[in-house]
Each structure stands twice: as structure tokens, then as C-alpha cells.
Amino acid sequence: MAWTRRDALLAATAAALLRPAGPARAQADWPEKPVRIIVPFPPGQAADLFTRLYADELSRRWPQRVVVENRGGGAGAPALEAGARAAPDGYTLTAGTSGTLGINPSVLPRLPYDAERDFAFIGNVVVLPLLIVAHPSFPARTAAALVEAAKARPGGIDLATAGPATSQHMSAELFAHRTGTRFNMVHYRGSGPAMADLLAGNVPLMFDSVAAALPHIQSGKVVPLAVTTPERAPQLPAVPTIAETVAPGYGAFGWAGLCGPAGLPESVLRRVNTDLNAILREPAMQARFIELGGTAAPGTPEAFGDFVRREIAQWREIARIAHVRLEG
């Protein structure tokens, strides 16, 4: 039977009604162009290394490339601001970290982003355990012995950190608070110079990452006392945790996750989380993370959001107690 003009109009109307709307269709086809992940540190740092690992895998799974863009400086604040102000279309994501999301809100005045409101939390990626290491000449060989020595000499034991308000420094302040001890915090411009002075015996103690300290532990140049994560680090299974020895419930560590701007479409958020978790659960990827000093941390967006909020609350309290504040 031949179609009339009225039949054609009805068919066109029905087709238009069945076709997804513009934004919905765009979300269904996402990604249609390269996806950018902003890393708030220079190339070669931990957040950069782990981000590049999963970014390469996402590029293999998606029809478009994932490009890592490094924006170092300013304690990561400029990079996080750029990520927060990006269009919430899924084409600009941000590697949020323990420093930029967890610590900065409590120590940086005039922070140009709201860590709790300006981001859509996609998922955590990696946990980076820290630990207390000592020069071999230091008599304490356990966390309990260290606490005893520190209580005998309040403020008389030097403890090196990678700089004020770093994860290493804040973890040390949390340790002092939870154990009722006091140390003379010696701040360096990064972990490298601090470790150099520890190896030389110029300072007896340091909080550092397992990744950075492991070669020196294996060579016998420094002695591990305890790790900061709630569970023992897979790289050092014989080293006890602070929580199991002197401060039940203690947990402090570096971490890096993935987030987008607030308002990120739910379908995009779930898609990225699903693919990211699949990558993080691959045995080969988990083994590579351990080799680099971290532990893969797959999970839900909701769990990651709750985790970030707990981190902010914990470091806000420690920053207040220890009077930690960065200027500029």
C-alpha cells in the first residue's frame, strides 16, 4: 500500500521520539574523543606512574586514547582547580591524591577548590604504604621501643620528613598524637634529601614510603620498625603495623584515586569505575603495583567518596593539633 504524506509525517515523528536525546546519545557513545587525566605532579612521581599504568590499559579498552597531562607545582592545587573547573562531560578527569584531596583542605589557605563538593569520586586506585625506618645506630628496633624512647626524651629525637604537610609528615604527627609522644620534626625538600641524611646518620628516624625505603632496607642500610597501613605491606610481610603494636586503629598512608568534575554523568562515572576496577583486579596489574611499592585498591564510587571524607576529617584534626599550616 502506498504511503500518504500523513503516514510519512507520523513515521518521522515516531522515529524522532525513539531516538535518544542529544546529551543522552553523547553519553551512550562516550568516549568519542581522547580522554585527559590531569596528574597534579611532575612525571615520574608515584601518582604519575600508577596513573599511566591504568591509562594505558583504558586506552586499549576504549575506542579513544587516554592522555596523561602533568601539572606540577603549588602543592597540586592548580591542577585540582583545573580538574574541578573542567566541563563535566567525562573528557577531563583528575588523579586525586592523599595530599591534594585529603590534606590540602586543612593546611592550605584560600584553596581554589572544595575537595568534598567540586568532584565526582570515581574510585580509588592505589594505596601507598609508609613506614618508620631507623638508622642502624638507633637502639630501638620496634615501634614499642621507639615510643618508650620518645617518652623518655620528649622532643629530643629528630625525625625526618619529606616536607611540611606531606603524607610522611602528617603520618608522623598522627603517630605522635596517638602514642602520646613528641618528636623534633626535621623537614626536607622531598624524600630523597631526607633519606640521604638518614643513611648518613645525621638523623636517626624517618617516615617514608615503602617504595622509596625498600632498597635501603634490603641492603641493611636502614631498619624498618613498623608500617602505617592497617594491614601489613605485601612488600614487607614480616614488618608489623603501627596499629597492631602501639596504636590500635592507626591508619595513615599515601593514595591516589580518580575523579571527575562535579556533575559528571552517572553513566560515564559507572563506565569508568567498571573498567578501572577490571584493570585493577587483573593479577598482572596487581603484581606490577606491588613491584612499584603500592597496592591496588578497586572499589565503588560511594566507598571512595566516603574514604576521602574520612581522610579530610582525620587530617583536619591532626593539622589543628600539630598547628600544621602552609602559606602561599
The tally of domains stands at 2
Q: Please identify which CATH superfamily of the largest domain we are dealing with.
A: Bordetella uptake gene, domain 1
Calculate the terminal CA-CA distance, rounded to whole Å.
Answer: 78 Å
**CATH fold-type name of the largest domain:** D-Maltodextrin-Binding Protein, domain 2
Strand content: 15-25%
CATH class of the largest domain: Alpha Beta
Radius of gyration: 24 Å
Number of helices in the DSSP assignment: 13
Average pLDDT metric? 93
Helix content: 40-55%
Count of β-strands: 10
- Biggest sheet details: 10 strands, mixed
Stretches with pLDDT under 50, minimum 5 residues: 12-18
Give the CA-based shape: globular
CATH architecture title of the largest domain: 3-Layer(aba) Sandwich
Structural class by helix and strand composition: alpha/beta
Order of helices and strands: HHEHEHEHEHEHEHEHEHEHHEH
Describe this structure in a few short sentences:
Residues 1-26 form the signal peptide. With 328 residues, this protein is of the alpha/beta class. Helix content is 45%, strand content 19%.
